[in-house]
Amino acid sequence: MKLIAAGFVALLTAASVDSVDLQSELDRAAHLNVTAPWEESQQVLDAIEPQMHTATPRQRGQFEFIAARNRALAGDCDAAVSSLQRLRSADSDPDQRLGAYRLSANCALNQGDFEQGFSFLSLGLSLLPEVEASSEKTMILGLATYYHSQAGEPAKALEYAQQAMDLAALDDDQRGLCMALFDLSLAEENAGAIREASVSARSAVESCKAAQDPVYVGASQVQYGELLSELGDHEGARRAVEAGLGSMQEAGYRDGVMRGQLTLAHILVQLGDSSQATQLLRPLVDEFERMEYWRDLRETLILLATLGAEVGDYEQPYHDLLRAEAANDKYLDGDRAMRLSLLQVQFDTLHKEQEIELLRERNRLLEVQEQAQNERRQLVTWGLFILAVIGAFLFMLLLRTRSDRRHLLWLSEHDGLTGLSNHTTFFNRASVTLEECLSQGRPAVLFVADIDHFKRTNDEHGHACGDEVLRHVGVAMVNTFSRSDIVGRVGGEEFAALLPDHTAVEAKGMIAQFHKRLSEEEGASELPPITLSYGLAEASQGQTLEALRQTADEALYVAKRRGRNQIVEAATLTPAQEVSA
Q1: What is the pTM of this model?
Q2: Greatest CA span in the chain, whole angstroms?
Q3: Separation of alpha carbons 468 and 530, rounded Å
Q4: Which residue in 154, 202, 489, 568 could disulfide with 415, CB within 3.0 to 4.6 Å?
Q5: pLDDT value at position 362?
Q6: Average pLDDT along the chain
Q7: Rounded mean pLDDT of 354-368?
Q8: Structurally, what CATH architecture does the domain formed by 423-580 represent?
Q9: How many CA atoms lie within 13 A of 462 on its CB side?
Q10: Could you tell me if 279 and 307 are in contact, meaning their C-beta atoms sit under 8 angstroms apart?
């Protein structure tokens, strides 16, 4: 489960504000903005808007922030970020400026604009020394926890989470502690510490109840339920998630309800209630696609396909899997963009720090020149020395810049977990190589492969073990296939290879070598048994890579239907078998 963003709003609006103190009404709107549906705090803002011409700059900033937050809750993040522009300026109050950067970064994250999101986050974190409000510090540290956790930096995420925890505990900030515990649970889960994450999630539920924050209460309960399920307590997980759904439904938090229903569907499958799970999942497909929540859409479609196949309905699961593959491509593009955005922000920050240091060196040189006018010989010697230092520094900076850019390029072309070519790079290279082979009359074979029962491995042994399985498969592929072969990870547990100058018979021999090497590495690492299903297709004259891949995918599907852990060659399938696939 990914971050179920903070909720907002509660209690009633009321009557006229003709003679009501403006600050007390702003404080009431801020309270409603956290504890009730957003419409209620907006009613208060609408009522006091005619009086805002008498407001102080701080009161106007408070009004603008609550209004922007309501826009974000209503689903208009573009308007929210735009309306926060004045509060992000250098003239605004540091506390309010930090809040504006935090909300802007949250909106950018929801929209998938990771580069802008990391930029807002970085600017907000730089304000921490100037800010007095500990609650704002706690919240942006929590947001930094989520960003770095999703960007594949669990150690940094845990560091930010601990800072938020310490700050909330120091100031006895109950709502800050609620959010810090929730963020800590997510960071621990992404780091593979499931039991520790469950303890943090349980504590978050209690703290959020004490803070009277219904959205975070619901989010924490769903998170706790998901972790209980991973630990094997499926009935307890069901109760926790259903309680969380009730809290978020009451608060009107639609995104949280949808993701909570997806979590509940997984738990129902574990409890054997596939029918109710399907009823929960099917309406989510269009909603996740409309909102472009690609990871959630992929997960929903794969689970639906699995449930459909279990009852013998293969046509709909086939279409669901095709849609899941398309959603997965879009999710991987977004995930890669997020990681690259973080690296780019880090690179830009380092570059700016180096430029500042270089300017300081130049200023020191000028001071020496002013103070040493009567010692020209020493000045010349000193100046040459400084120039040499600067030249070496610039040379080192150039080397570092080239190294960083090479690293960024490598990340954009490879899967970070296995080191193999990623989806986009694999199919670009494979398409060019296939055209060359066919134009020169050389043979070529494409196979696609899925790790068998990979979800079961994650469920029974944990995601850390699942990642290790993927790494072992990647290492075995690198050690088996030659550099002229094109090998890649093209999906969650899906791999593919284009073998130029190989026939189908030779390709099967290579796969056998790969399996032998995989078995040897598996035994040495004490991993659970690893098997794969293969669909293999030999290219024919004039055939495109897309058509060849479709043929191999059909053979792979037949291999799965026949019981997995086998190779099915497309050429051996009858037309009837291809249709049923």
Answers
A1: 0.49
A2: 97
A3: 11
A4: 489
A5: 63
A6: 81
A7: 59
A8: 2-Layer Sandwich (3.30)
A9: 15
A10: no
